Amino acid sequence: MLHHILGQAKKHPSLILLFVFIGAGGGGAALYFLRLALFNPDVYWDKKNNPEPWNKLGPNDQHKFYSVNVDYSEVKKECPDY
């Protein structure tokens, strides 16, 4: 299969960039899946030693990919209809 892809790339050099972007997208998706599988507190692999790992999370542990701390008390002061 790799021989066929290289043959197509030699015949049509404009396909090389397409192969690079598809490979980079697939690699990025695989790395993101690995990150979720290894570092997400919702995913656990060892049910015998740690059956409920979410109980060990502290209040300051980040468990989201991107978290923003918003003070909603300021929003209530600015919006009289709220």
Automatic annotation (TrEMBL):
UniProt cross-references to InterPro entries, sorted A to Z: B12D
Recorded topology in the membrane: Single-pass membrane protein
Membrane-spanning parts: 15-38
Keywords: Electron transport, Membrane, Mitochondrion, Mitochondrion inner membrane, Respiratory chain, Transmembrane, Transmembrane helix, Transport
Entry-linked Pfam families: B12D
Keyword field contains Mitochondrion: yes
Protein name per UniProt: Cytochrome c oxidase subunit NDUFA4
Location in or out of the cell: Mitochondrion inner membrane
Keyword 4Fe-4S in record: no
Domain of life according to the entry: Eukaryota
Main subcellular location of this protein, as a coarse class: mitochondrion
Phylogenetic placement of the source organism: Eukaryota, Metazoa, Chordata, Craniata, Vertebrata
UniProt record similarity statement: Belongs to the complex IV NDUFA4 subunit family.
